[in-house]
Amino acid sequence: MSDFSPAYILFLKKLQVFLSPSMPDHFIFESKSMAKSATCGRGINPSRISIVKLGVDPQKYSPQYKSSYIYRIFNIPSNRKVIIYSGHMEERKGVDVIIRAAAYMVNQLHRYDIHFLIAGNKNGEECRFYHLYQNSNAVDHITFAGYRDDLSRIFPCCYAGVIASTGWDSFTVSSLEMASSGLPLVVSNLQGLSESIEADVTGFLFNTGDHLDLVSKLILLLDNPNLHNSMSKAARERILHNFSFEQQIVNLSNTLKTVISRKIRSKTDADKLLTSSRIPICQKA
């Protein structure tokens, strides 16, 4: 994969791919945006590319496990609706966008009915975000949860999920896990993330890096319970119909069968052509 290339560079990359003696026969990607970066960035022929959607265990990540779990272990007041992010902390993940949105909602809009739970930090990674909300009312409405192995219990207790990446991001597994748990998602309108929801049905897209647009989308969910419930149900149904582990395995298996069959047919046709083009050798009597 690569960033999109100008026409002359893309031509050279296509030539490089064509001449490469060790290029894979086929490429399988998890999202349309990743596949597009291969064709428009690396010059891979679309006929050599397939997309197999990611999968999640809908039994493990299920709304039926909704409980007071997060309120107990994180000491969050029970009257707050919890917005969760789970992922890495590097700059491109946009954690600062989430923190800015949280601080604005609490400090400027006085939304004391919300709480932001940020999971995935380790080794003090959260410290670099403190200056965005310390010494304000928001400090009591933001919790860094650390690196977790109990997300299947945490997600169903939350109200919505947020992924605010500002740099390259694809179709993340966490988006499937949250949706499977019945969470509407608010995600950056960016590459594969835009494929992680059905816009305005299972969640919202917001302008990348714009914490105020993120705030506006979250308020829509917070202040419209019917909309939230509709998106929650649609998110879960979308997972069950399109993104289970079973479907991923079937799709991967079918793709491999198709690619292998095509390769065998191609080799067979080449052998037939080679055989028919051989010059007969006359033997002496």
Overview of the structural elements:
Helices cover 41% and strands 12% of the residues. With 285 residues, the chain is an alpha/beta fold. It folds into two domains: 1-52, no CATH class; 63-241, Glycogen Phosphorylase B (Rossmann fold, 3-Layer(aba) Sandwich). It has a six-stranded parallel beta sheet with strand order 5-4-3-6-7-8, sandwiched between helices. α4 (95-107) crosses α7 (211-223).
Summed up, what is this model?
The protein contains 9 helices and 8 strands.
Count of discrete structural domains = 2
CATH architecture of the largest domain: 3-Layer(aba) Sandwich
Cα shape: elongated
Described by its quaternary structure, the protein is single chain
CA-based gyration radius: 24 Å
Characterize the main sheet. 6 strands, parallel
Mean pLDDT: 87
List keywords for this structure.
285 residues, 8 strands, six-stranded parallel β-sheet, Rossmann fold, elongated, alpha/beta
SSE map:
Elements: H1 7-19, E1 27-29, H2 32-41, E2 49-51, H3 69-73, E3 81-86, H4 95-107, E4 114-119, E5 142-146, H5 151-154, E6 160-163, H6 173-180, E7 185-188, E8 203-206, H7 211-223, H8 225-242, H9 245-276
Parallel strand pairs: 1-2, 3-4, 3-6, 4-5, 6-7, 7-8
